[in-house]
DNA sequence: CTGAAAGCGCTAACAG
DNA sequence: CTGTTAGCGCTTTCAG
């Protein structure tokens, strides 16, 4: 009784799903030919190709991506490193990345960074040394992860701001929220407000965050007093706490917020302080998160194209991995001020 | 000139990261012993173990998960199938799943279902036939994906409601929002409202959704009229449109909404119709999404423990994959009515 | 306790 | 155009 090397015993019909060998055997071709059909790279005669595809369908064969990758096939998976997906910006960026990656045939992994997570374990989250990575580095945890990544991993990142010094990193994308913050500030000054206060989101760098800087730019250019930025967090609660005492001062008539959640907290604090929005106080947010158009009052805010940024970030990575065939990196929209009900002329 | 089989030419120092063989060679042990140390399964003498660990650190060796999995190692990866992560419920569930999975040492992949995505390509999203999967099946796309999954893939799912007929699926988890909807409805009736209107989220099944059913339960039990449920979508806009005409009718004094976004739209419609909340009209939402506590007025809503549900779903999957060692499935919180400013006594 | 051998499913050379 | 031969890095047998 002879048994060919590769075939498992016939009487043990383990429910193992079809492999490339099964397809090859049934189709009466070599395993390599099946591989060729799958990848469409090399030319295969139309007859064989059809037969192989036929068998593939019959057997319900699905290529094993792990084996493909292990055998040195092209990289077709990315891991996204991000912190706190509860935040609108990160979540929307993630959506953009996932969509673009999936469309390009990549499988995407996700790993959430905790505030506490050290640098050491970052590499351990990758499925293999050198796996492609995207980092959403809007906050400190993300920036640290980006920095902790071994040099040999192909990475692209969505960051809060352009690098502090030296040339731009060609593998990073960001939104020009400095200009946007300046624009929003000028808009408020144009409404007759003497100055604008700013509630800041936490910074990802030691340097001055972009939004803070843009706000200062505009005030300085207009020769207005520049108040201390109010340190806020990411939540409505932190916005509420940041301005609660400030709002007793009726000379404060305009507040720009680092994000829409902060603005939500600020509006609540205003209500409790008996300030009317926008009659008494103008509030402007940042992000244009989905609820903002329906708030009471609806929120004037800066729309940021996070999804577009995420798509672009993947586009960058794709070009890095496969400069020959990757399509051009898609553009993303410029920030745009959306004027709604929460802002108006300064009180007389 | 002789070249040993396994070693690449010395003069071509390709930056290939250290493999288990490299560790073995440097440590002067067999490759298998290194494997034993890594996995901690079999016993290794303390001396060798220490030496191996030492070398691992020196070389910066990291196991290749792909190779581990391919070689038949234990399954340590899951992919999550979900639709529209822009929705709070899905996003929060995803967070819970990811956290639990990562904590248990699993890498997690994510693949977003589109409304249009057919059943055929579902299996193609998996990294290998038989990969473990979690499905967030709160809507139709998720339910279809769950159904389309090949029988041999180990799956656990977070679903909108218990299966229509037959016994509960032991690999599914859900929130008891039927009871919660009934509770919220009774609360409103207790406030003196004659009846309660309901703006529904889209259903994932042909059967009556849980929330709708709970709302009807409570009205019937109290012998009140049961209005037609108003079909809504997921967005504030759809809530706005659903009730715009209805609110002209002053006899409508209480509206329960299938989620907080709908409630947001309803509140805006109410404002435009000149209705006062809660003096004139009570609005109750569902989910307790982050902004709801800070809205104007703040929203009475049903808090749902999506993150806990996600963690439990992973716990279930873990037990399915490894019944021996997986810890008990963590419990999640019961829905809870959070009373805030948007609801009050019926107008006189 | 340790080592040697045989693959996991696939792709990348090479032959024909 | 097609088949053959090596591995990818690891885990599982099976022998010592």
UniProtKB/TrEMBL annotation, chains A, B:
PROSITE patterns hit by this protein: HTH_CROC1 (PS50943), HTH_LACI_1 (PS00356), HTH_LACI_2 (PS50932)
Source taxon at top rank: Bacteria
InterPro entries for the chain: Cro/C1-type_HTH (IPR001387), HTH_LacI (IPR000843), LacI/GalR-like_sensor (IPR046335), Lambda_DNA-bd_dom_sf (IPR010982), Peripla_BP_I (IPR028082)
Domain HTH cro/C1-type: 22-59
Keywords from the UniProt entry: DNA-binding, Transcription, Transcription regulation
Pfam family, one: Peripla_BP_3
HTH lacI-type domain residues: 18-72
Protein name as catalogued: LacI family transcriptional regulator
The organism of origin for this protein: Microbispora siamensis
